Amino acid sequence: MSTQENNTPATHKRVKASVIYRLMLIGLGIPMFIFSLICGLLGMFGYNMVNWNNETVHGVLALPIALLSGLFISVFFTLFLGTICCVGLWIYSRFRPLQVKVLD
After folding, report:
1. Which one of 12, 46, 66, 93 has the largest count of C-beta atoms within 10 Å of its C-beta?
2. Is residue 10 within 8 Å of residue 99, measured between CB atoms?
3. How far apart are CA 23 and CA 67, in angstroms?
4. Cα–Cα dist 10/98, whole Å
5. Can you tell me the mean pLDDT for 80-99?
6. 77: Cβ–Cβ under 8 A, 6 or more apart, which residues?
7. From the centroid of its chain, how far is CA 68?
């Protein structure tokens, strides 16, 4: 086995927006799904964790509403923060080339 890191620096002038949005959706979606699942399960057992139209939802209906809310929040934040990230990287790339380390 080699003790050297097997990395290759890659310099790009452009990063596709779809890559940024995909990474943001995965990074936000998985933790939000876990959090929504926990809130939905707690809501099923009577905890005041799930609200819909300013009314607390309990019982079996709490789980799908919590998962739907988590999906909506994940997509919203992905669109909002992904757009800000794309604009920031676009501005940065105007002054310096973007370097990305690719690890094998």
Report:
1. 66
2. yes
3. 20
4. 9
5. 89
6. 24, 28
7. 15
65-80 pLDDT, tens digit per residue, is 999 999 999 999 999 9
Among candidate residues 70, 95, 64, 87, the one with its CA nearest the CA of residue 15: 87
The predicted model scores a pTM of 0.76
**What are phi and psi for residue 88, nearest 5 degrees?**
-65, -45
Structure tokens belonging to residue 85: 């990230």
CA distances from 25 to 65, 83, 104 (A): 20, 12, 23
State the pLDDT at residue 26: 96
Q: Which two tokens stand for residue 45?
A: 């057992």
Spatial distance between the Cα atoms of 67 and 53, rounded to a whole number of angstroms? 16
User: pLDDT for 47-66, tens place per residue?
Assistant: 998 998 999 999 999 999 99
Residue type, 14: R
What are 47's two structure tokens?
A: 């905890």
How many Cα atoms within 13 Å fall on the side-chain side of residue 39?
Answer: 19
